Amino acid sequence: MLRIDDLWKSYGDEEVLRGVDLEVARGDVEVLVGPSGSGKSTLLRCLNRLTDVDSGQIYLDDMEVTAPDTNPNIVRQQIGMVFQDINLFAHLTARKNVTLGLRKVRDFSKAEARERADAELARVGLADQADSYPAQLSGGQKQRVGIARALAMDPEVMLFDEPTSALDPELSNEVLDVMSELVAEGMTMVVVTHEMRFARGGATGITFLAEGEIVERGPPDQLFENPTHERTVQFFQSIRHD
Ligand code: ADP
Ligand code: MG
């Protein structure tokens, strides 16, 4: 469903992605791990057309995401993204944060958008917070509004970039619970996270990225129990001591 072919991306002299190939099937949950600076966020940003690639292709089914004539708004509707930094509009309620894209990109009427927004907020356990402003919400609640906002667009794929790394453990759990529900619903997901409990429980595949290259990829059991590369072993040891 999602296919990445030989993706290269540099910033100035720095090669951030060096020939990344990856395929994610419908319903799969690919967890992307790797040291800071290895290119994980850049890869997600390329998938979502927030960053242009230097060479290589990304396909979502028949749509070439990377083609210059592909509309980035269509890409972002079909590939939803949740960021580490919780980027809600501070002057808008939770509901308005969710309806905005529906009104602008999907052309929903006001009433339709409101109905959809409330349904998505309920889906992430925030039915009672629709009228709250971001400042009145906890970090975990804000992150869940971000998830509701992406889900409202009815995406084919959801990308998560360290959605819990700015949160305290108990707030992380409420976000991870929502993500686990999406896994159970069969959502196709690419998740950058160091939450290994989520990876073990939810991932169909783990990809270990280092210095812009995929070092190793496999099912969670294989990567955790029998990694074949020394770098993978070292990486998992390093995050277990976090
Ligand atoms: P990760 O998410 O794995 O920590 P990133 O994809 O954020 O890694 O970054 C990979 C490398 O690319 C880093 O060295 C970072 O400094 C660089 N980089 C990322 N975004 C930009 C940018 N917009 N301009 C210049 N360099 C960038
Ligand atoms: Mg990152």
Would you write up a description of this structure?
The protein has one domain: P-loop containing nucleotide triphosphate hydrolases (Rossmann fold). 39% of the residues lie in helices and 25% in strands. It has helices at 40-47, 72-78, 94-104, 110-123, 139-152, 169-185, 196-202, 220-225, 230-240, and strands at residues 2-11, 14-24, 29-33, 55-60, 63-64, 79-82, 157-161, 188-192, 205-210, 213-218. The strands form 2 sheets. It has a 6-stranded mixed sheet with strand order 6-7-8-3-9-10, sandwiched between helices. The longest helix is centred in the last third of the chain and has 17 residues, at 169-185. It is globular and about 55 Å long. The two termini are 34 Å apart. Magnesium ion binds next to helix 1.
Short description:
With 242 residues, the protein is α/β, with parallel strands linked by helices. The chain contains nine helices and ten strands. A hairpin with a 2-residue loop joins strand 1 (2-11) and strand 2 (14-24).
